[in-house]
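Hypothesis: this fold can be encoded by more than one sequence.
Test: take the structure tokens below, design a sequence, compare later.
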């Protein structure tokens, strides 16, 4: 936030008298009057500079009237104004960013507006985290907005998307004795507590069942048809059994290793167009892994953010066969789910519109479990990794995926050598599948300096 923006917020929210201006009952002031008063107090701000300041405000803190003659702050006033905002239906859960030092007061009194007119809440966790981070190490509180509405509380929504309410009693705040210690610990799939991950999973399942969700703008987004089509199209493929079309080179493949999550990569690639797809680092025995219990790994992150879990539940054969196989190598079978709607980010924020990505669900061999059972054979694992990696790419090519998000598949808790996984994918993408895809992104958390997995992939792919 620039110094000019901070000063303007001070004037339009709290101290208009500092430069001798008056706000009307709705918080507006004539722009010419404002600029003249600023100039008289030694602040030379042109109309063009003011327009640019309003347009580039990181939180869209200010609004200019439709006729271009007046300006006001969107919310956050301590001076008496009536913004005239209509009541709005909030998402089931909203978020509030704060710091640990104030938690005792919140436990005792809930969230109170203090000198402001309202308590400010965010529609997504990441925004709340940034707000809390202004005062120190942030803690994000989940607010049970749906329950508050049922209890008679009224919510407003400002022009820049901030949710406003008079107060939030403590019983509507998800805050327990573990919050200060376990909230916002980075896990690579968002910075939220385990309890919040459970809540996010429940909300996502409810959205799929209801057939819609409410995004951060307060808009209803329909997903019923998208989820049903993805479920109906989900199928099982087996190496050596299902005949897949040979890959067709379409030009040079752009390959990159990025720091971040699969979801971040999907959201970034979606505007480029084409058929988007990703690999789900799957549990061989449970659809969605442990996402319903708040577990954090790549599959859990994907399941919380999309309609994937509903697709996986249509294929019990995949899980039954892997269980019956009784080997941590697992079987050379994979699932394909077309155009799964992804509607949340890694922190649980609702996307303005869903991103469609076809998902290939494949379990890597579990080297860690093999070692615990004293059955680990490096050559056997390497063969399985190569065969299954080729099946993944063959399926992506068969369904003509243009942009494919992969990663350090099996190199986490499954304990596979990340350098080996990277080399297998490199050899396949440089050999049989050369030029098959427009773009391949390996989304691997961390950097060369902080992550052995990222370093291994960056070293292999340059």
């Amino acid at each position: 936030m620039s110094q000019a923006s901070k000063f303007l917020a001070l004037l339009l929210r709290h101290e208009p008298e500092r430069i001798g201006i008056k706000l009307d009952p709705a918080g507006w002031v004539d722009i010419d009057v404002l600029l003249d008063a600023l100039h008289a107090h030694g602040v030379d701000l042109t109309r063009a500079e003011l327009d640019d300041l309003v347009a580039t405000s990181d939180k869209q803190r200010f609004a200019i009237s439709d006729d271009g003659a007046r300006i006001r702050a969107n919310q956050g006033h301590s001076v008496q104004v009536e913004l005239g905002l209509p009541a709005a239906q909030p998402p089931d859960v909203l978020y509030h960013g704060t710091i640990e030092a104030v938690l005792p007061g919140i436990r005792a009194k809930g969230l109170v507006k203090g000198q402001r007119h309202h308590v400010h809440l965010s529609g997504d966790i990441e925004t709340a985290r940034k707000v809390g981070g202004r005062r120190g190490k942030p803690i994000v509180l989940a607010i049970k907005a749906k329950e508050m509405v049922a209890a008679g509380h009224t919510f407003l929504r400002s022009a820049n998307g901030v949710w406003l309410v008079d107060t939030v009693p403590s019983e509507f705040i998800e805050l327990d004795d573990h919050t200060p210690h376990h909230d916002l610990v980075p896990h690579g799939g968002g910075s939220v507590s385990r309890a919040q991950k459970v809540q996010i999973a429940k909300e996502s399942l409810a959205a799929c069942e209801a057939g819609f969700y409410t995004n951060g703008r307060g808009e209803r987004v329909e997903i019923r048809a998208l989820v049903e089509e993805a479920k109906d199209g989900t199928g099982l493929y087996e190496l050596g059994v299902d005949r897949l079309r040979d890959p067709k080179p379409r030009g040079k493949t752009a390959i990159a290793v990025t720091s971040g999550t699969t979801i971040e990569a999907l959201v970034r690639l979606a505007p480029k167009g084409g058929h988007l797809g990703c690999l789900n680092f799957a549990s061989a025995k449970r659809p969605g892994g442990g996402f319903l219990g708040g577990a954090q790994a790549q599959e859990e992150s994907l399941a919380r953010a999309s309609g994937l879990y509903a697709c996986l539940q249509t294929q019990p054969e995949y899980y039954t066969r892997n269980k019956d196989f009784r080997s941590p190598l697992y079987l050379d079978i994979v699932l394909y789910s077309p155009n799964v709607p992804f509607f949340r980010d890694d922190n649980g924020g609702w996307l303005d519109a869903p991103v469609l990505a076809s998902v290939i669900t494949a379990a890597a061999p579990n080297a860690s479990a093999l070692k615990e059972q004293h059955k680990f054979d490096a050559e056997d694992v390497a063969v399985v990794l190569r065969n299954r990696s080729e099946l993944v790419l063959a399926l992506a090519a068969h369904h003509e995926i243009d942009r494919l998000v992969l990663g350090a598949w099996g190199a986490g808790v499954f304990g596979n050598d990340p350098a080996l996984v990277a080399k297998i994918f490199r050899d396949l993408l440089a050999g049989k599948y050369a030029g098959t895809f427009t773009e391949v992104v390996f989304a691997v958390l961390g950097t060369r300096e902080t992550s052995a997995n990222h370093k291994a992939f960056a070293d292999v792919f340059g």
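The domain at 3-73 is CATH 1.10.10.970 (Arc Repressor Mutant, subunit A). The longest strand covers residues 350-362.
Hypothesis status: open.
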